[in-house]
Known about the structure:
This protein is mainly alpha-helical. The protein has a domain at 30-101. Helices cover 59% and strands 0% of the residues. The chain contains 4 helices and no strands.
Amino acid sequence: MKDEYDFSQGKRGAVASNKGKTRITIMLDDAVIDAARAVAENEGFGYQTVINNTLRHALLDSDPQEHIEHSAQLKKGITAADLKSLEKRLSAAAGEIRRVLEPDAKP
């Protein structure tokens, strides 16, 4: 170990770049986070990755009119049916992640 180190060319901040991603603070229902963590634990991914991929799939791969209908429901509160639907979407997203990361794995 050296007695002194030169940090004159050092840069502050995260070491890894987050190109294409933005850090935000968001309030989610406890049930949503619990469901995402359960899927993430079963699939071996981080729960934030599961949530991100589920949102990407739901918002970018479907009909925009469908989003308007769902957002109106969610403003009133999440129902058991909404949670079941979310669980199915989270599971599908986790399966898709597994398929991409492990192309030889069976579904």
